[in-house]
Amino acid sequence: MSDVKLKYSELDLQEFKEIINKKIARAKEDLDLLERAYKNNSDNGTDDTSPSFKSFDEGSEVMNKESNVQLAIRQEKFIRDLKNALIRIENKTYGVCRVTGKLIQKERLKLVPHATLSIDAKRAQ
């Protein structure tokens, strides 16, 4: 019988849960900032600037909004992935590679707590 662990201990899972909850809180703050940035239509007083810069200004403003919307979408996916990781903790399946069935390294999960693949499985993709 090998001494390879098949799942993380309750103590480990609690530690991961705390890491994930902190990341979710931070990610929600970041998402809120992004949403306020692209929903905020108040300009910074460019009405009195030269009209020749107006169209350039509006173009860069549209690009900024599109960029912020893309970042917000990515942030929402990140939050969803983190919440899914919390579900896996509750189900006691957290930290198990979905390809190999082996435990994902603790160091990897601390850095990427929503990971579902071990480094080996990720490289094989």
From TrEMBL:
<feature type="region of interest" description="Disordered">
    <location>
        <begin position="39"/>
        <end position="59"/>
    </location>
</feature>
<feature type="zinc finger region" description="dksA C4-type">
    <location>
        <begin position="97"/>
        <end position="121"/>
    </location>
</feature>
<protein>
    <submittedName>
        <fullName>Molecular chaperone DnaK</fullName>
    </submittedName>
</protein>
<dbReference type="Pfam" id="PF01258">
    <property type="entry name" value="zf-dskA_traR"/>
</dbReference>
<dbReference type="GO" id="GO:0008270">
    <property type="term" value="F:zinc ion binding"/>
</dbReference>
<feature type="domain" description="Zinc finger DksA/TraR C4-type">
    <location>
        <begin position="93"/>
        <end position="123"/>
    </location>
</feature>
<dbReference type="InterPro" id="IPR037187">
    <property type="entry name" value="DnaK_N"/>
</dbReference>
<dbReference type="InterPro" id="IPR000962">
    <property type="entry name" value="Znf_DskA_TraR"/>
</dbReference>
<keyword id="KW-0862">Zinc</keyword>
<keyword id="KW-0863">Zinc-finger</keyword>
<feature type="compositionally biased region" description="Polar residues">
    <location>
        <begin position="39"/>
        <end position="53"/>
    </location>
</feature>
<keyword id="KW-0479">Metal-binding</keyword>
